[in-house]
Amino acid sequence: MQEIADGAGINKALLHYYFRSKDRLFNAVFSAAVARLVPPVFATLASDEPLQEKVRAFVDSYFDTVQKYPFLPGFVVHEMHRNPGRFIDIIGTKNLLALERLQRELDEGAARGEFRRMDAVQFLLNMLSLSAFPFVAARAMQAITGRTDAEYRRALDERRALVPVWIAELLKPSTAK
To answer: What is the model's pTM?
Structure first.
């Protein structure tokens, strides 16, 4: 806790007084991390924009946030795996409404022949994994590919433009009969 107090420019006693325990301090840090990543996802999904615009807005928002805070996805994924209950406690269940709305939008688009039939959870998993994994695995991917930080950042910038294209392809109705 001393390192944290030093970084915050306060004494350890004040930090301990405010948070009372390392666990409460960690919960505050984890809550702040989740708050940077999760609400924009569900806010975008709940918007009235067409689905393709939602995808582009999500990708732009996510990439902007994660490029500022590249440690966030790995940290959040690690903690979700270690203690899923804490993650659920933080995000709550109100975000399920956005998922239900997304499912309606996918179903209506499929009924009109605009999209293939798709489960909203699968759609969300695809969108999140296409966006998050390159950040979570950045160091490993750089080591495997031999790319410098600058080269990998350029690859991420390219990916930002590609993810909405890939999602659009995923949504296209099947032409096979």
So the answer is: 0.81
